[in-house]
Amino acid sequence: MKLIVFTLALALAGAVHAAPTFDEVRKAYRSSDAELLDRHGEAIQSLRIDMTVRRLPWVALNDISPALPAAVLQAEDQRFYQHDGVDWNAAAKAAWDNLFRTRPRGASTITMQLAALLDPALQPAAKGRSWGQKWDQVKAARELDTQWTKQQIMEAYLNMVSYRGELQGVGAAARGMFGKAPSGLDLSESVILASLLRGPAAGQKVVSQRACALALELRLPSTCSEIQLRIVVAMSRPQLAANLPPAPQVAQQLLTRSGQAVRSTLDAGLQRYAQNVLRQQLAALQGRNVNDGAVVVLDNASGEILAYVGNAGGGEVDGVAALRQAGSTLKPFLYELALERKQLTAASLMDDTAIDISTPGGMYIPQNYDKNFKGYVSVRTSLASSLNVPAVRTLVMTGMERFHERLREVGLSSLTRPAEYYGYSLALGSAEVSLLELSNAYRTLANGGMYGAVTLAPQATAASRRVLDARASFIVSDILADRAARSITFGLKNELATTFWAAVKTGTSKDMRDNWCVGYTDKYTVGVWVGNFDGQSMWDVSGVSGAAPVWRDVMDYLHRGQGSRAPKPPAGVVRQQIAYQPALEAARNEWFIAGTESPVIALVQDLHRAPKILYPGEAAIIALDPDIPDAIQRVFFQAQGGQDLSWQLDGEPLGQAASSYSWRPTPGQHQLALVDANAKPIATTRFQVRGADDAKRQE
């Protein structure tokens, strides 16, 4: 029998058998589990810390089914309420019977058994208790009976005695063997538990004999066969029966000691709802090879984590903390940077046509999600409809280093490699981020550019600091809430179109391995990821069909009794009626950072643009493909404003620059120039061509 070692040395000093008080015993009791509480004090999750024994929290006698004490009294101590802790009649009868028995029969009362549980010195050795121990046990039992009420003795006994294996106490026994709370034990279950007290390690046959005899004594309606069947089921349970744990990842983070009760920032109802919604969506997507997901909900004002669903249940992976490719969810921070630096406005026109960008690793050719190009579109449309080519053009404008630094500033600490490692694909989310950090970055947008840490433990609101321009953050939020602007890609009716104000962005990583939906209202930020923890690709799943339904359901739950108001424009933001020439988009009111507004957005024709070499870029390295014959390899020189100008390569004329020029590359260093009619250079660039052998050596 495993023991509870009570730390009562000071209280018992000088009196080896002085009985502790009931309150001291209850206070010293330690559950083997630690308990996670939600923000309101409701128990939401337990975590086993002590692996030597299985104990659940102390159960008051009033919360234990009356059937169990009745069965225990019949089995262990029928004169419990008449004796003074020691049943001398039973002791005398046992002594007489033992004269004629090979196996001694005991006469320990419930009070005597409790005395032995409280004092390890009274525990029997392998050969049983010595006469001295027996006498000390008698004295201790009588002292307990004098100082405690019978109800206190019964309550302590039921909570401290071992029932089966590692199950100690009525809470663990009821949950572990029958999957219910002690208050729900019926007569048959109580008889089974009472039959285990005399021999917790007894086999099913012995327990069945005892339980059937006890049921007969108590005149239960259950037959012996029925009780035997219930014993087989109860004793075959491999572990404590429990519902799907709602917050195991949070419990792992916050619970460290057995008996703890730690209050968290979670909301129990929201946590369970988010978990259920996620499980339902994953079940609906099983046919598309989507098996895993995660959800996090943040309070915008405090940074408290209101829901933290690391996975849909049954796994150890924490999807809230795991790193996955971000997809298009990084685009809002790119456009915010360009707006902040006044390189773009929400009305600026972006060229959504094919683009080839020379990089040290070769050509980078971004594509849109639907493989189509839209021509000239505004920044508002480009961001809301998640167009890839305009995003890459914006990154070229702002610079990779500056954007990389900005992502670090909004808390994406996982971007540990230099900007060059990610390249221009950083605009499309090639970097790996966690759902928690990404959601908190969106919370920064929700708070007008103020960054603050998130927390799972209730505490004073942490100080925040400005990392984004308030004016640019407001405009980005307005774009992300614009269902008309996103309709080019997503249509007007989809899971992103809430009935209240919300700014939201979806994202899908390369090969459909990760699917995101992150967005915010005036009070909450919700982030959702779905995919596969093992990295398998999903089958035809977009942000709107994958993560967005979970995001929408959670947002609707949060706002079931309240709306959401759009943020107020900060100082330095103005609204201007605009019109496009030509009418590429409909006239509208648009937000601008003061000083950047313009009533007319005109598309500058190529002949009015400053001459510039678009490709190859300065210091570009072009690697020849060893698998393509040299005779058919080509590089296309491209320029803007090339009317009336000509190409010149290494001082030799090539042809007119009004259109792209097809050149058969030769290894080596080259200088390309745009020259006028007098062969005067207007724009130049230097680049290098690596031969096939060089390319192989680079590999």
From TrEMBL:
EC number in record: 2.4.99.28
Q: Which Gene3D superfamilies match?
A: Biosynthetic peptidoglycan transglycosylase-like, DD-peptidase/beta-lactamase superfamily
User: What region holds the Glycosyl transferase family domain?
Assistant: 52-205
Q: The Penicillin-binding C-terminal domain covers which part of the protein?
A: 606-678
> Pathway membership of this protein?
Cell wall biogenesis; peptidoglycan biosynthesis
The record's listing under SUPFAM superfamilies reads: beta-lactamase/transpeptidase-like, Lysozyme-like
The text of the family note is:
In the N-terminal section; belongs to the glycosyltransferase 51 family.
Descriptive protein name: peptidoglycan glycosyltransferase
Record the organism.
Duganella margarita
Q: What is the lineage of its organism?
A: Bacteria, Pseudomonadati, Pseudomonadota, Betaproteobacteria, Burkholderiales
Supply the gene name.
pbpC
